[in-house]
Design brief:
Order of helices and strands: HHH
Oligomer: single chain
Distance between the termini: 110 Å
Structural class: mainly alpha
Helix content: 55-70%
Amino acid sequence: MAGKGGLRKKGDFAGMKRSRWQRRQSRNRILAGALLAVALAGLQFRLWFGDGGVFAVFELHDAIDAQQGENERLYARNRELEAEVNDFRTGLEAIEFRARRDLGMVRRDETFYQIVERR
């Protein structure tokens, strides 16, 4: 059975039986590997799909971008309204402009002409 130098050839182990301890060790290694694989799969699931996972973070980034756009739009609107309020406080031109544009008002010494276009 033994070749040169006391080494066995590939087929020489076929007839040897493994002991009960070796079988148990092999089974324990397989069980440990399976448990590690399940634990890794569970952690990966939580990483990708759980609360605070990768997809949740992507959704939060999208929500932040949308909110920042809305904030910029509202900030510009507030600046316009603030300028209009300042105009109302300082002079009558802004009030007169709004009365003409929104209410269709005219002064006493003016004549109002309305031009209607034919369709």
